[in-house]
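Our preliminary data section would be incomplete without showing what the modeling component actually yields. Below, a chain of 114 amino acids is followed by its predicted structure, encoded as tokens that our downstream tools consume directly.
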Amino acid sequence: QVQLMESGGGLVQPGGSLRLSCTASGRFFSQYAVGWYRQAPGKQRELVATTANNFKTDATDSVKGRFTISRDNAKNTVYLQMNSLKPEDTAVYYCNGHPPLGYWGQGTQVTVSS
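Predicted structure:
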């Protein structure tokens, strides 16, 4: 079973930045498309951004121009650079395959608040 581990979350003021990291066991990231997802309290988990194994990226409209997904296959790591954060970005952020595997890591909490 692939182990997924997210990190880099925290408390940040509106307008601030964070960079999330996701590491996976084995060579998972070099073989599959990967996505960052988030789940806010009381809401369904949503797809935020994706990176294909050809490095093509995409993002949901609400974060385009603010969030950037990238990958380093040699380090088995995928990143999510988040700039100009807004309170509505507050959520637990997860990485997973795209489409997702049948299980999830613990995620990392991002809280945007003054």
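The mean pLDDT is 93. The radius of gyration is 13 Å. Preliminary results of this kind motivate Aim 1 of the renewal.
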